[in-house]
Amino acid sequence: MAEKSFKYIIVGGGVSAGYAAREFEKQGVKPNELAIISKEGVAPYERPALSKGYLFPEGTARLPGFHVCVGSGGERLAPEWYKEKGITLILSTEIIKADLPSKTLKSAAGDTFKYEVLIIATGSTVFRLENFGIQGADAKNIFYLREIADADKLVEAIKSKKNGKALVVGGGYIGLELSAALKINNFDVSMVYPDPWCMPRLFTADLAAFYEAYYTKKGVNIIKGTAAAGFVSNEKGEVKEVKLKNDQVMEADIVVVGVGAKPLINLFTGQLEEDKGGIKTNAFFKTSVDNVYAIGDVATFPMKMYGDIRRVEHVDHSRKSAEQAVKAIFAKEQGKEIGAYEYLPYFYSRAFDLSWQFFGDNVGEAVIYGNRDPASEKPKFGTYWIKDSKVVGAFLEGGTPEENKAISNIAKKQPTAPTPDSLATEGVQFASPP
Question: Which family would the database say this protein is a member of (predicted)?
Answer without folding.
Answer: Belongs to the FAD-dependent oxidoreductase family.
